[in-house]
Amino acid sequence: MINIWIFLLTMSSFAKSVALLEKELFIKDVSFSNLLCPLATIDLGLHSRATKCASACSQKPACRSFFYNKHDQLCKGAPGILTSTAGCALQSGTLYFHTTDITTTTSTTTTTTTVPSSQYGRPCTGAADCTITYGKCLRSTCECQAGYSYKSSTDSCVSNCGNYGSTYSEYLNVDLAVTHSGEYHFTSLARCHKYCSDTSSCRGVNYSPLFNGGMCRLKSRLDPTLFVSFNGINFYTRNCA
């Protein structure tokens, strides 16, 4: 009889955990990609996927967002949702996710606002979790396919933005085999992104820290059919404004 009660309690705890995870959905904020901010004070351990990091955050009532580094698999939670990059440090490979339920509290009332549902930027395990046009589940996150930019105003992946912004989507170990419109050496990834953002015709960059002290090549056009595998070089697509 004792064993049955232990089993029932275990199943009840599991069901609550699953319900909590289903309720506490997360979405990626590309504004904080490749950064780590001081607010991330909750140690959530090491996890092989962003979905597991999301689950760990969901189990802690104080965790409202988290940083996940896809290179070293480190997961750090935060008690709030970031709105500014002030004080944040550059950390390559880090992704930032926050809950879609944003709650603000005053002395007399509590108001909850639910962000409109979007698959982009959310943790995924396969194609069924990422069905937006030209979307793809990449490294456990719903992203645009290489060669397409994300347009938040229409929640879609597009071949031409019209107006381009200053955020980028990362594609590891691929080279866009089109003529580059500019090249810089001995530069950082952040500086490479700035070169592109400051150039109106730039649609993305190939960057490698392994060549010439940090090689940056600007690309003025995207072509999804011309991406080739190339170890040590990553491509960064410029997203829409």
Fold and architecture overview:
Strands 1-7-4-5-3 form a five-stranded antiparallel β-sheet, covered by helices on one side. A five-stranded antiparallel β-sheet has the order 14-20-17-18-16, covered by helices on one side. It is an alpha+beta fold and 241 residues long. The chain is globular. The chain has three helices and 20 strands. A hairpin with a 4-residue loop joins strand 8 (101-105) and strand 9 (110-114). Among the domains are: 24-114, Hepatocyte Growth Factor (3-Layer(bba) Sandwich), CATH 3.50.4; 164-240, Hepatocyte Growth Factor (3-Layer(bba) Sandwich), CATH 3.50.4.10.
Classify the secondary structure makeup into a structural class: alpha+beta
Q: Which runs of at least 5 residues are low in confidence (pLDDT < 50)?
A: 1-24, 102-116
**Judging by the overall fold, what is the CATH architecture of one domain?**
3-Layer(bba) Sandwich
In angstroms, what is the radius of gyration?
A: 20 Å
**Head-to-tail CA distance between termini:** 62 Å
- Determine the strand fraction and express it as a percent band: 35-45%
| Inertia-based shape | globular
Helix content: 10-25%
